[in-house]
Amino acid sequence: MIRKHIETQHNIRLLETPEDAHTLDIDGSMLTIHGIHTLSDRLHIMKKDDRDVELDQYIRACNTEGLRCNIVMIHNPDGLNFLLQRLLETSQKLHHPTLFLAGHTHGAMFDIPVLRGIGLRLCKTYY
């Protein structure tokens, strides 16, 4: 209900699943924007088999033929770590240039060497 309101009333599109990808045609070059749902500890608490299936879907979506490049938005940088681990486990590769954008660390405001680990643990960023 909240998602529908945000998307219809505010023209915001939430990208939470591999199927939610948004493809843009820019002068004949196809660019796809993906969003990996990483809020809270979602990927950490998922069953490994379920997480692997979802990550494989993202990898396939990023490797869609005809794409020029991908942008993957992730709230928590741990999502990138899970995706990279899955690529290594399965010997898969991303065939198109892919830019990953993550937040959650609030502009690295925890970048004081002594406090970095504590700050990242408090905001549940393991990567």
Description:
The protein is an alpha/beta fold and 127 residues long. The protein has one domain (17-122). 39% of the residues lie in helices and 20% in strands. The chain is built from five helices and four strands, in the order αββααβαβα. The chain has helices at 2-9, 42-45, 48-62, 78-90, 113-122, and strands spanning 22-26, 29-36, 67-74, 98-102. Strands 1-2-3-4 form a four-stranded mixed beta sheet, with helices on one face. Strand 3, helix 4 and strand 4 form a beta-alpha-beta unit. Helix 3 crosses helix 4 (78-90). The protein is globular and about 50 Å long. The protein starts with a helix and ends in a 5-residue tail after the last helix. The mean pLDDT is 84.
What are its keywords?
127 residues, four-stranded mixed β-sheet, 39% helix, single chain, alpha/beta
Helical proportion, percent range:
25-40%
User: What pattern of helices and strands is seen along the backbone?
Assistant: HEEHHEHEH
**C-alpha termini separation:** 32 Å
The main sheet comes to: 4 strands, mixed
Count of the domains: 1
Radius of gyration: 16 Å
Query: Regions with pLDDT < 50 over 5+ consecutive residues?
Result: none
The number of helical segments is 5
- Mean residue pLDDT: 84
Structural class: alpha/beta
Shape: globular
Secondary structure tally: strands: 4
User: How do the strands line up in the largest sheet?
Assistant: 1-2-3-4
Which band does the percent of strand residues land in?
Answer: 15-25%
